[in-house]
UniProtKB/TrEMBL annotation:
Stored InterPro entries: 2-oxoacid:Fd_oxidoreductase (IPR051457), OFOB (IPR011896), THDP-binding (IPR029061), TPP_enzyme_TPP-bd (IPR011766)
Domain called Thiamine pyrophosphate enzyme TPP-binding: residue spans: 61-208
UniProt-recorded name of the protein: Thiamine pyrophosphate-dependent enzyme
UniProt cross-references to NCBIfam families, sorted A to Z: PorB_KorB (TIGR02177)
UniProt region (Disordered), positions on chain: 140-164
UniProt organism field: Natronosalvus rutilus
């Protein structure tokens, strides 16, 4: 029996199964928002009926990138900004896996920004969690693509001259089909949003506000927050692109003016890339890795291809 045969098994599971037995405790600083992501994810995975062996967590580099060290799923800690291409390849090679990609604001909106845009455009079926703490945490607090204008740090001692990126708007115009923002201070909402994102068939982007008390001088905890679905002050249709766009724009401005808006912003039913590849007959019917176990399989090996080009 290969590791993949476990996919599809039905049994009772709980969040403790996602806690590694041998790994050390998280090394995040006390009060770090990253704990909130880990907690919400550990609760969400069993609640959608997943077992650890059905999930792959792919992370970038940063404090956020340590997520899969503390989570007992398959894991791949990639290089800076490259969680999405690795996640895409894994999902294409084994469509049975539930893929969660994760990384920081520097990782996903900076160095990996190009991958973010195209993974959204192509609507790859996965959940992408961006830990947005508005700084480069691991490397000691440099200004990042989501740092506010005027933000002071070692790299912008006189104040940040750049305007921050608009993550929700960027996801929308790029083509993501589920877009939400949540915050580490709102664990129940975070868990529900992660569950919806995992169950969504297509690219689901979660901008997850995670405070960095060590390096973000303002040490914002993102409280009080407003849930746009719960509040009477906001009324928009998450299936209407134009209304979602206006709400995202307001949300992105509000964050830097001191009002933290969170919730679901956009959901669309456009078929995922995997779905479209299946319709074209271009998706493997079994995980590609299974072929290593099948001596009779006829498949081209990379060195056969090299031979042909001699
Ligand atoms: C190609 C490359 N450039 C730079 C670095 C150094 N580096 C490591 S983590 C990091 C920033 C992390 O910031 P972010 O993605 O926001 O994650 P956080 O630590 O805040 O969770 C940088 C610049 C690297 N590892 N690789
Ligand atoms: S440096 Fe900031 S982001 Fe990194 S673990 Fe500490 S509080 Fe969290
Ligand atoms: Mg960061």
């Amino acid at each position: 029996m290969s590791a993949f045969n476990a996919i599809g098994d039905e049994r009772e599971i709980d969040r403790d199964e996602f806690t590694p037995g041998l790994e050390p405790q998280p090394t995040w600083c006390p009060g770090c928002g990253d704990f909130g992501v880990l907690k919400a994810l550990k609760q969400a995975l069993p609640e959608v009926g997943l077992t650890p062996e059905e999930v792959l967590t792919v992370t970038g580099i940063g404090c956020s990138g340590k997520l899969n060290s503390y989570l007992d799923t398959y894991g791949f800690h990639t290089i800076h900004g490259r969680s999405l291409p690795v996640a895409r390849a894994a999902k294409l090679a084994n469509d049975g896996l539930t893929v969660v990609a994760a990384g920081g604001d520097g990782d996903g909106y900076g160095i990996g920004g190009n991958h973010f845009m195209h993974t959204a455009r192509e609507n790859h079926d996965m959940t992408y969690i961006v830990f947005n703490n508005e700084v480069f945490g691991l490397t000691k607090g440099q200004t990042s693509p989501t740092s506010p204008k005027g933000h002071t740090s070692k790299t912008t001692p006189h104040g940040n001259a750049k305007s921050p990126i608009r993550p929700l708007s960027l996801a929308l115009t790029s083509g993501a089909t589920y877009i939400a923002r949540t915050a580490a201070v709102n664990p129940n909402q975070a868990k529900e949003i992660i569950k919806e994102a995992i169950e969504h068939d297509g690219f689901a982007h979660i901008d997850f506000l995670t405070q960095c008390p060590t390096w973000n001088k303002d040490a914002r905890q993102y409280v009080p927050y407003v849930d746009v679905q719960e509040s009477d002050d906001y009324d928009f249709d998450i299936h209407d692109r134009k209304e979602a766009q206006e709400m995202m724009f307001e949300t992105e401005n509000a964050l830097y003016e001191g009002t933290v808006l969170t919730g679901r912003y956009f959901v669309d039913e456009r078929p995922s890339y995997q779905q479209q590849k299946k319709e074209l007959g271009e998706m493997p019917e079994e995980p590609l890795a299974e072929r290593y176990f099948d001596d009779d399989a006829e498949w081209e090996r990379s060195y056969d291809l090299l031979e042909r080009h001699k």
